[in-house]
Automatic annotation (TrEMBL):
It comes from the Bacteria. PANTHER family: TRNA (ADENINE(22)-N(1))-METHYLTRANSFERASE. This is SAM-dependent methyltransferase. It holds the Pfam family Methyltransf_18. It comes from Ruminococcus callidus ATCC 27760. The keyword Nucleus does not apply. SUPFAM superfamilies: S-adenosyl-L-methionine-dependent methyltransferases (SSF53335).
Length: 224
Protein backbone atom coordinates (compact mmCIF):
# COMPACT_ATOMS: atom_id res chain seq x y z
CA UNK A 1 0.00 0.00 0.00
CA UNK A 2 1.27 3.46 -0.90
CA UNK A 3 1.37 5.93 1.96
CA UNK A 4 1.79 9.65 2.20
CA UNK A 5 5.04 10.98 3.61
CA UNK A 6 3.68 14.50 3.96
CA UNK A 7 2.82 14.05 7.63
CA UNK A 8 6.42 13.00 8.31
CA UNK A 9 8.01 16.21 7.02
CA UNK A 10 8.89 18.47 9.89
CA UNK A 11 8.28 22.19 9.49
CA UNK A 12 12.03 22.57 8.80
CA UNK A 13 12.09 19.96 6.00
CA UNK A 14 8.76 21.18 4.61
CA UNK A 15 10.28 24.68 4.32
CA UNK A 16 13.26 23.21 2.41
CA UNK A 17 10.89 21.22 0.14
CA UNK A 18 8.87 24.36 -0.59
CA UNK A 19 11.99 26.00 -2.07
CA UNK A 20 12.55 23.25 -4.65
CA UNK A 21 11.83 24.25 -8.27
CA UNK A 22 8.41 22.96 -9.38
CA UNK A 23 8.78 20.14 -11.94
CA UNK A 24 12.50 20.10 -11.15
CA UNK A 25 14.95 17.35 -10.27
CA UNK A 26 16.16 17.44 -6.68
CA UNK A 27 19.37 16.06 -5.24
CA UNK A 28 19.14 15.57 -1.47
CA UNK A 29 22.59 15.26 0.09
CA UNK A 30 22.73 13.52 3.48
CA UNK A 31 19.24 12.23 2.84
CA UNK A 32 19.05 9.88 5.84
CA UNK A 33 15.44 8.53 5.65
CA UNK A 34 14.81 10.27 2.30
CA UNK A 35 11.66 11.90 3.65
CA UNK A 36 12.31 15.03 1.58
CA UNK A 37 12.72 13.35 -1.84
CA UNK A 38 9.91 10.90 -1.08
CA UNK A 39 7.52 13.77 -0.39
CA UNK A 40 8.68 15.74 -3.45
CA UNK A 41 8.18 12.72 -5.72
CA UNK A 42 4.87 11.65 -4.20
CA UNK A 43 3.41 15.12 -4.44
CA UNK A 44 4.55 15.36 -8.07
CA UNK A 45 6.60 18.49 -7.41
CA UNK A 46 9.68 16.63 -8.70
CA UNK A 47 9.83 14.21 -11.59
CA UNK A 48 13.08 12.60 -10.51
CA UNK A 49 15.22 12.65 -7.38
CA UNK A 50 18.79 11.82 -6.45
CA UNK A 51 19.65 11.04 -2.84
CA UNK A 52 23.08 10.55 -1.32
CA UNK A 53 24.40 9.61 2.08
CA UNK A 54 27.88 8.91 3.36
CA UNK A 55 26.68 6.03 5.57
CA UNK A 56 25.14 2.73 4.45
CA UNK A 57 22.53 2.57 7.26
CA UNK A 58 20.80 5.85 6.38
CA UNK A 59 20.91 4.98 2.68
CA UNK A 60 19.15 1.67 3.41
CA UNK A 61 16.53 3.59 5.38
CA UNK A 62 16.19 5.92 2.37
CA UNK A 63 15.60 2.96 0.05
CA UNK A 64 12.92 1.61 2.41
CA UNK A 65 11.10 4.94 2.58
CA UNK A 66 11.16 5.40 -1.20
CA UNK A 67 10.00 1.80 -1.74
CA UNK A 68 7.13 2.13 0.73
CA UNK A 69 6.16 5.45 -0.84
CA UNK A 70 6.05 3.76 -4.26
CA UNK A 71 8.55 6.17 -5.85
CA UNK A 72 11.81 4.18 -5.85
CA UNK A 73 11.79 3.97 -9.66
CA UNK A 74 12.02 7.75 -9.90
CA UNK A 75 15.01 7.91 -7.53
CA UNK A 76 18.73 7.22 -7.72
CA UNK A 77 20.67 6.51 -4.54
CA UNK A 78 24.40 6.99 -4.02
CA UNK A 79 26.58 5.96 -1.09
CA UNK A 80 29.18 8.72 -1.20
CA UNK A 81 30.64 11.82 0.39
CA UNK A 82 28.43 14.72 -0.63
CA UNK A 83 27.95 14.93 -4.40
CA UNK A 84 31.08 12.96 -5.34
CA UNK A 85 29.28 10.31 -7.44
CA UNK A 86 26.46 12.46 -8.73
CA UNK A 87 26.26 13.54 -12.38
CA UNK A 88 24.69 17.00 -12.70
CA UNK A 89 22.59 16.34 -15.82
CA UNK A 90 19.05 17.57 -15.24
CA UNK A 91 19.47 18.43 -11.57
CA UNK A 92 17.83 21.77 -10.77
CA UNK A 93 18.13 21.89 -6.97
CA UNK A 94 20.59 20.58 -4.40
CA UNK A 95 19.36 20.35 -0.81
CA UNK A 96 21.91 19.97 2.00
CA UNK A 97 20.04 20.01 5.29
CA UNK A 98 20.68 19.06 8.89
CA UNK A 99 24.48 19.24 8.69
CA UNK A 100 27.17 21.51 10.08
CA UNK A 101 28.16 24.58 8.07
CA UNK A 102 31.69 23.25 7.68
CA UNK A 103 30.42 19.97 6.20
CA UNK A 104 28.21 21.90 3.77
CA UNK A 105 31.22 23.99 2.66
CA UNK A 106 33.29 20.80 2.27
CA UNK A 107 30.57 19.21 0.12
CA UNK A 108 30.17 22.28 -2.09
CA UNK A 109 33.92 22.84 -2.45
CA UNK A 110 34.23 19.33 -3.84
CA UNK A 111 31.42 19.79 -6.34
CA UNK A 112 32.61 21.31 -9.64
CA UNK A 113 29.02 22.02 -10.83
CA UNK A 114 27.87 23.90 -7.69
CA UNK A 115 27.45 27.14 -9.67
CA UNK A 116 24.90 25.59 -12.07
CA UNK A 117 22.14 24.75 -9.62
CA UNK A 118 19.85 26.24 -7.02
CA UNK A 119 21.23 25.48 -3.55
CA UNK A 120 18.92 25.00 -0.56
CA UNK A 121 21.08 24.90 2.54
CA UNK A 122 19.99 24.32 6.12
CA UNK A 123 23.09 24.41 8.34
CA UNK A 124 22.92 23.40 12.01
CA UNK A 125 26.18 25.09 13.07
CA UNK A 126 28.87 27.49 11.80
CA UNK A 127 26.28 29.46 9.81
CA UNK A 128 28.42 32.66 9.66
CA UNK A 129 31.28 30.64 8.11
CA UNK A 130 28.93 29.26 5.46
CA UNK A 131 27.61 32.77 4.65
CA UNK A 132 31.15 34.08 4.34
CA UNK A 133 32.12 31.25 2.00
CA UNK A 134 29.04 31.81 -0.20
CA UNK A 135 29.75 35.56 -0.43
CA UNK A 136 33.41 34.93 -1.32
CA UNK A 137 32.40 32.38 -3.96
CA UNK A 138 30.05 34.81 -5.70
CA UNK A 139 26.73 33.36 -4.54
CA UNK A 140 23.71 35.51 -3.81
CA UNK A 141 21.01 34.22 -1.47
CA UNK A 142 17.93 34.89 0.61
CA UNK A 143 17.23 33.39 4.00
CA UNK A 144 14.28 32.35 6.06
CA UNK A 145 13.99 31.29 9.68
CA UNK A 146 11.74 28.43 10.72
CA UNK A 147 10.85 27.85 14.35
CA UNK A 148 10.02 24.41 15.73
CA UNK A 149 9.23 24.67 19.43
CA UNK A 150 12.15 26.52 20.99
CA UNK A 151 14.53 25.77 18.12
CA UNK A 152 15.27 28.05 15.19
CA UNK A 153 16.43 26.78 11.81
CA UNK A 154 17.94 28.96 9.10
CA UNK A 155 17.37 28.04 5.44
CA UNK A 156 19.42 29.66 2.68
CA UNK A 157 18.27 29.70 -0.92
CA UNK A 158 21.40 30.44 -2.99
CA UNK A 159 22.37 30.86 -6.62
CA UNK A 160 25.67 31.77 -8.22
CA UNK A 161 25.63 35.34 -9.51
CA UNK A 162 29.37 35.88 -9.91
CA UNK A 163 29.31 38.90 -7.62
CA UNK A 164 31.81 38.51 -4.81
CA UNK A 165 30.95 40.68 -1.83
CA UNK A 166 31.87 41.37 1.75
CA UNK A 167 29.42 40.90 4.60
CA UNK A 168 28.84 43.20 7.55
CA UNK A 169 29.08 41.57 11.00
CA UNK A 170 25.26 41.73 11.14
CA UNK A 171 24.90 39.97 7.78
CA UNK A 172 27.42 37.36 8.86
CA UNK A 173 25.78 36.58 12.20
CA UNK A 174 22.05 37.06 11.48
CA UNK A 175 22.05 36.77 7.72
CA UNK A 176 20.47 38.40 4.71
CA UNK A 177 17.00 38.29 6.20
CA UNK A 178 13.65 40.00 5.93
CA UNK A 179 13.49 41.96 9.17
CA UNK A 180 9.70 42.23 8.87
CA UNK A 181 9.31 38.47 9.24
CA UNK A 182 7.98 37.42 12.66
CA UNK A 183 10.22 34.35 12.92
CA UNK A 184 13.30 36.40 11.91
CA UNK A 185 12.50 38.94 14.62
CA UNK A 186 12.12 36.20 17.26
CA UNK A 187 15.39 34.58 16.11
CA UNK A 188 17.26 37.90 16.05
CA UNK A 189 15.91 38.77 19.52
CA UNK A 190 17.19 35.46 20.85
CA UNK A 191 20.59 36.00 19.22
CA UNK A 192 20.73 39.56 20.53
CA UNK A 193 20.38 38.30 24.11
CA UNK A 194 23.09 35.68 23.55
CA UNK A 195 25.51 38.26 22.10
CA UNK A 196 24.81 40.70 24.93
CA UNK A 197 25.52 38.00 27.53
CA UNK A 198 28.69 36.98 25.71
CA UNK A 199 29.85 40.61 25.58
CA UNK A 200 29.33 40.91 29.35
CA UNK A 201 31.25 37.69 30.04
CA UNK A 202 34.14 38.78 27.80
CA UNK A 203 34.22 42.20 29.38
CA UNK A 204 34.43 40.65 32.85
CA UNK A 205 37.33 38.53 31.61
CA UNK A 206 39.04 41.68 30.29
CA UNK A 207 38.88 40.51 26.67
CA UNK A 208 39.00 43.08 23.87
CA UNK A 209 36.45 41.23 21.67
CA UNK A 210 33.75 42.22 24.16
CA UNK A 211 33.25 45.47 22.26
CA UNK A 212 32.59 43.65 18.94
CA UNK A 213 29.86 41.50 20.46
CA UNK A 214 28.33 44.46 22.29
CA UNK A 215 28.27 46.40 18.99
CA UNK A 216 26.59 43.47 17.25
CA UNK A 217 23.95 43.21 20.00
CA UNK A 218 23.34 46.93 19.61
CA UNK A 219 23.06 46.67 15.81
CA UNK A 220 20.41 43.95 16.19
CA UNK A 221 18.57 46.01 18.80
CA UNK A 222 18.36 48.88 16.31
CA UNK A 223 16.79 46.59 13.69
CA UNK A 224 14.12 45.23 16.03
C1 LIG B 1 21.19 14.77 10.81
S1 LIG B 1 20.99 13.87 9.33
C2 LIG B 1 20.01 14.98 8.37
C3 LIG B 1 19.06 14.24 7.51
C4 LIG B 1 18.19 15.13 6.61
N1 LIG B 1 18.97 15.76 5.59
C5 LIG B 1 17.48 16.16 7.44
O1 LIG B 1 17.78 17.34 7.32
O2 LIG B 1 16.60 15.78 8.23
C6 LIG B 1 22.58 14.01 8.54
C7 LIG B 1 22.77 12.97 7.46
O3 LIG B 1 23.84 13.40 6.63
C8 LIG B 1 24.70 12.32 6.38
N2 LIG B 1 26.01 12.91 6.06
C9 LIG B 1 26.91 13.49 6.90
N3 LIG B 1 27.98 13.93 6.24
C10 LIG B 1 27.77 13.63 4.93
C11 LIG B 1 28.51 13.82 3.74
N4 LIG B 1 29.71 14.40 3.75
N5 LIG B 1 27.97 13.39 2.57
C12 LIG B 1 26.77 12.78 2.53
N6 LIG B 1 26.02 12.56 3.64
C13 LIG B 1 26.50 12.98 4.82
C14 LIG B 1 24.64 11.47 7.64
O4 LIG B 1 25.02 10.14 7.40
C15 LIG B 1 23.15 11.62 8.02
O5 LIG B 1 22.37 10.61 7.42
Amino acid sequence: MKWRIRTMLTKRLAACAAQVTPAGVVCDVGTDHAYLPAELLQSGRCTRAVATDIHAGPLEAARRTLTEAGVLEQAELFLCDGLEQVQPAGITDVVIAGMGGETIVHILENCPWRRQVHLILQPMTKIPDLRLWLAQQGFGWSEQVVQEGKKFYVILSARHTGTVRTLSPLEQEIGCVDWQSESVRRYAGWKQQRFQKLAQQLEQAGRAEAADWAALAQAIQEKL
